Amino acid sequence: MIAEAKVQEQDWGQLEKATVATDRTIAADAEMLSAQLQAMRNRLFQPESRKVLRKFTSGEAAKLIGVSDGYLRQLSIAGEGPQPETGAGGRRLYTLADINALRRHLADQGGAKARTYLPRRHSELGEHLQVIAVTNFKGGSGKTTTSTHLAQHLALSGFRVLAVDLDPQASMSALFGYQPELDLNGNDTLYGAIRYDESRRPLSEIIRKTYFDGLDLVPGNLELQEFEHTTPHMLSARQQGGDDGQPLFFARVQEAFATVADDYDVIVVDCPPQLGFLTLSALCAATSVLVTVHPQMLDVASMSQFLFMTSDLLAVVREAGGELNFDFMRYLITRYEPNDGPQTQIAGFLRSLFGARVLTAPLVKSTAFSDAGLTKQTLYEVSRESFTRTTYDRAMESLTAVNSEIEGLVLKAWNRAA
User: Fold this and answer.
1) In this structure, are residues 270 and 167 in contact, taking their beta carbons and an 8 Å threshold?
2) For FRET with 248, which of 2, 22, 292, 404 sits at 20 to 30 Å CA-CA?
3) Strand residues in 45-129 grouped as ranges (E)
4) Mapped to the 3 state alphabet, what secondary structure does 212-271 carry?
5) Nearest to 313 by CA among 129, 132, 135, 128
6) Measured distance CA(46)–CA(317) in Å, rounded
């Protein structure tokens, strides 16, 4: 027995050493990877290691505003509105800030098209803040790609947009040029505005400007996971009679958004790929929901479980006083390959089940998204010349169709014609 105990003690000792060694190895790998990502950012986004948005040609600017290129040229010649930068060969280039200034200039002239030029919501007409939660239980469904491109599309269309990265993995933040472990300190995520202790701070202090004019960001990092840990303790304390008068977890995100509602038209939330307190809180704050679906049978089966769990948990939230009234809930088929027979069958299967709740346009699978991602960019940030034109055009056509359809749903929620 004594000999056996000594052997067990040696085994436990070796296991403990192995565990420590593994911890150190993982920590060292994290440090090396972080350093390489920082070096990559320094090379890509010189001289300040920060992303900037490319300038737009006069043709692109005219299309975004909704006027002809010739009319834009007339405005420039007449000295009306911001003057574009003139490049080689007299090519006129506009920043997004220039484009938004032109929108305001044209809207100020009044007329029937004023709201078309500047589509911002009018709260005095009952147009409420639109909060779109993009969610899925399973990773790899294109959730972050969808939410980031949607936020940028709306900003390019002239809306005031707040993008909220609620995923501790912070992929959306990375696409906006942030390296969470280097660029963020404590209390720099939404958790800082919804936490339960005295360190809570106003959301307005956490919001950061981005290189997209009209698009702000609440970045994410691992501290968001703290909400999953502290919320059960607070619920337990309430059950034991320790009510401190603070709103329950499901109302905290909604309360934080309400403090900045006057500054934005749309908030796009990239939810974590799990059904925890963060996701439930985002759903309770949402006015609309997008569920991304990869058309593979295992993903569809996983989504079935996600919907069952979501329904059960939201029913509990409703009984506790939470309001759940969505303007729209839509399923978005992502990473779709039209020539893949099984995917086409599953897409048809979903449409037969859910009908109009499946967006008409799917988001196709394209190397353009992954190629742009190599430099932490989206398809809206790269130029057409960076890709094979057919590849770029196909991806952009799909992206425009999806985001325009969602934009139309937002306008419909405001009782406007799309």
Assistant:
1) yes
2) 292
3) 56-57, 85-86, 92-94
4) CCCEEEECCCHHHHHHHHHHHHHHHHHHCCCCCCCCCHHHHHHHHHHCCHHHCCEEEEEC
5) 135
6) 48
- pTM for the model: 0.86
Residue 36 one-letter amino acid: Q
Q: Taking Cα atoms as reference points, which of 89, 90, 116, 65 lies closest to residue 80?
A: 65
- Report the distance separating Cα 107 and Cα 112, nearest Å: 9
| 3-state percent breakdown (helix, strand, coil) of the chain, nearest 5 | 55, 10, 35
Q: 309 is written with which tokens? A: 């769990």
Give, as one character, the DSSP assignment of residue 164.
E
Encode the chain (418 residues) as per-residue pLDDT tens digits.
Answer: 445 455 455 554 554 555 556 556 656 665 666 666 666 656 655 555 567 888 999 999 999 999 999 998 888 888 888 888 887 777 889 999 999 999 999 888 877 777 788 899 998 989 999 999 999 876 677 899 999 999 999 999 999 999 999 999 999 999 998 887 777 888 999 999 999 989 999 999 999 999 999 999 999 999 999 999 999 888 887 766 555 667 788 889 999 999 999 999 999 999 998 888 999 899 889 999 999 998 888 888 887 777 887 778 778 777 766 667 789 999 999 999 988 999 999 999 999 988 999 999 999 998 888 888 777 889 999 878 777 888 899 999 999 999 999 999 999 999 987 5
User: Can you tell me the distance from the alpha carbon of 211 to that of 155, in angstroms, rounded to the nearest whole number?
Assistant: 11
Asked whether the CA dihedral 79, 81, 84, 89 is positive or negative, the reply is negative
Cis peptide before 47 (omega within 30 of 0): yes
How is residue 351 written in tokens? 């449409």
Report the distance separating Cα 389 and Cα 374, nearest Å. 18
Q: How far apart are the first and last CA of the chain?
A: 80
Rounded to an integer, what distance in angstroms lies between the CA atom of residue 152 and that of residue 215?
Answer: 7
Q: Yes or no: say if 174 and 376 are a contact pair by the CB < 8 Å rule.
A: yes
Q: Residue 397's CB: how many other CB atoms inside 10 A?
A: 12
- Distance, in Å, from the CA atom of 28 to the CA atom of 282, rounded to the nearest integer, reads 34
CA distance 224 to 164: 12
Distance CA 350, CA 307 (A): 14
3-class SS of residue 66: coil
Whether 260 contacts 207, CB under 8 Å: yes
